[in-house]
Batch of 2 targets.
Target 1
Amino acid sequence: MLKGKTVVVGVSGGIAAYKAVALCSRLTQAGANVRVIMTEGAAKFVTPLTFQSITRHAVYTDTFDEQDASVIAHIDLADRADLIVVAPATANVIAKMAHGLADDMLTTTLLAATCPIVVAPAMNVHMYEHPAVVENMNTLRLRGIRFVEPGTGQLACGYVGKGRLAEPEQIAAYLEQLVMENEPPKLLAGKRVLITAGGTVERIDPVRYITNDSSGKMGFAIAEQARRLGAEVTLVYASVSEKLPEGVELVRVQSALDMMDAVLERFSDTDLVVKAAAVADYRPAEPAAQKIKKQEDELTLRLVKNPDILAALGQRKTKQFLVGFAAETNDLELHAMQKLQRKNCDLIVANDVTDPLAGFGKDTNVLHVFDGNGPAASFPPLSKHEAALRLLLLTAERMGCGRPAGGNE
Ligand code: PMT
């Protein structure tokens, strides 16, 4: 993923600067065009010549040392960068970034950059936990800057705690993932993907109904990411509160029975189904044709079971790959595995809807994916878009997408 990408590595002044050499080596080996900027402090720990030898490019240390008179170095570098990573990032450079200071080559370049920026902090544990540093990092997070968390262990200062620069391979893997998210490969090209989203609406009478809290965000995110991965997408959606995604076929339904019809009608032509919709398990047995009038003190509503759409697909599937969702409040794995087996899914995605970062209506989700053998992947709290992409990349891999036809690689 990093091949041909211009990655600017900003090295600031901490003992972990030596690890940035290994990071540059990894990135260079991955085919990236690596440009290094060192702060004055960094150059006291490692010489610019070390980075120059690894990257085969002159190292930037001074804003006023213009190597090419036809351009202004920090603007040119910021414009050409596909990605900037500051590793190690000291408390000082983090503070400068948070406050928009630009008094050296690294901070002027960071201020001029429009590409994604990743920060890998390294410092003493008390500095890392200092409210000023915590606040500065939060400010940067809110601006979209991403962090590779430091590790915990023996620090150069003698303390044991959090603050050790993440390992170079971990930082490199994070950068690969980021590039993948920004420019996902067209792994689902030529595939027909059907997604369901939202909460079904089960009518009681013309003015009342039973539904649930699904906003459609999760299903919409999956539909959008499937389109980015090159798929032809049909989105069957019920009650939603979000803006509809573009570039996909939209099929609006109301009840579980409507959703069942819409999904079954398209199933034979479909390669992948992802059922993110929250389908009502029961519906009123006799929806009233007219508004029910207030009469007695009690009103009993008789409900009958809805068909299980996913289970029906599980019974009928031939070539189709089936991904179900499981909204759970307890015993995630147990319930998810039972659903996977009962509904004959290839993967099931459990989300704990009591988690403040997961479930109905939230912008984030925490997905735990299971296959027939048990846990297949767990993702940290992510925006629903990022979570959807991770889920689809895993699904595409399981479907064998991107492999040569008939190949085993
Ligand atoms: O829409 P958001 O606000 O973003 O919220 C996302 C979500 C919480 C709705 C989503 O992440 C989620 O968990 N969707 C599944 C909700 C659900 O109905 O879970 P379940 O455990 O009751 O059902 C298991 C699976 O069977 C689901 O894939 C469901 O679509 C399917 N099902 C359920 C009942 C039924 N009669 N037919 C079905 O197909």
Target 2
Amino acid sequence: MKTYYFPNTFLWGAATSAYQVEGAAEEDGKKKSQQDVINAGRRFSDASVTSDFYHHYKEDVALMKEMGMKSYRFSIAWSRVFPDGDGDLNEKGIEFYDNVIDELLKNGIEPIVTLYHYDMPLALVEKYDGWIDRQSVADFERYARFVIDRYKDKVKIWTTINEQSIIVQFWTQKNLIPEKYLSDHQIRYQINHHLNLAHCLAVKAVHELVPGGIAGAAIGYNPIYPLTSDPKDCLAALNAQEFQNQFYLDVYFKGFYTKSVLIYMQDHGFAPKVEPGDVQIFRENISDFLALNYYSSECVKWPEEGAVFQESGVNWSGKKGEMDSHEIQEDFYEKILNPNADRTDWDWTIDPWGMEYLLRDIYTRYNKPLMITENGIGYHDILEADGTVHDDYRIKYLHDHILAMARAMHYGVEVLSYNPWSFEDLLSTSNGYEKRYGFVYINRTDNDLKDLKRIKKDSFYWYQRVIRDNCISE
Ligand code: BGP
């Protein structure tokens, strides 16, 4: 049995995002974000209370400390700080984050702050359709600069945009898109262009304002495998890899759009409009690291002649066609479920080998430090009558993924932190409270708020030992 030890500086932790955990969606001056509207229309709980971190943050930070966390990755809600997106500051809103950050620091937990996690202020969607309009970039920059400047002495690690690739891939679920644009894929990639500019301007602000600060995006990243060794399937995998992953990373680290993807987009009429000076903004603001949200891998094959299919064979809910019915013609690659991997109840593949594969692959190509800002398994957890939650499946999932990360580190990959999803149960973006991820169980369901009691799962005690021992064994 081999044991892998981690560096003493390794930032063990866990992650959440504002609208999925805070609740208090319209309290103390906060106004709605687009997620409040998107979630209100779903078949599970809305985002008004979620896990009520807003009122329980001290209790929750105490639990983080008890588990031994060295870092906590969370996001700031733009609409709590500037309720109208571009208007006046909400003093009470920013005070909440002052308090959370101070509480973390007091407990020896390093804050890893994400500036944007799907939650565009609704006011800006109503004003100009959110990220569709280029004005969103300037408004985001103003918000980001304010927050970065306020915490420049307390927060050193900044992630800019959460899962840009997912925002683009599932653009009608992660953004409120007006009916008239729903089948306009040029708009989809224009949103992406604006997100790239917003990301770069936030990196710039961190470099200018934060002494010793580092910045990077948190990308949703699935490694892609060819179904067979047929050269056409291998080429399809390369196409998918460039289209879904490299297209984002090349901007973050090289300052340009991947040529093959841009040409594909031009051929199909959905390339973004790029203004003079934009590429210079990309080139001058290269990221310091890449934060990775890793859950699953994907498998592709060469597409059938003339096939029309969804951009994702299996969408975010794990059910075909349920949530994103807007199709895109792809003659580049065709996704299929990997026949060689286990799957969760929602058909997400469970692939620890993919963790080692992607860490080594990305590090070799870009040579920048990496962080894991999400990784975890959604499950129908059961609260037993004696108040315990036996989540051995989560312990196995996390063990196997940490081990894979350790193997990658053994081969030289620089990984700074591990922040699995999620610290506590929260509102899953696709399945509400039916699908749980936390180390801490929140006593509520989609239909019943109950007492919101915090209950430590078996995985809590297991992860506590991993952090204490600072190692993982095969
Ligand atoms: C990531 C998001 C998270 C989180 C996670 C799990 O894409 O960054 O916000 O939600 O996926 O997915 P889900 O919530 O759909 O179960």
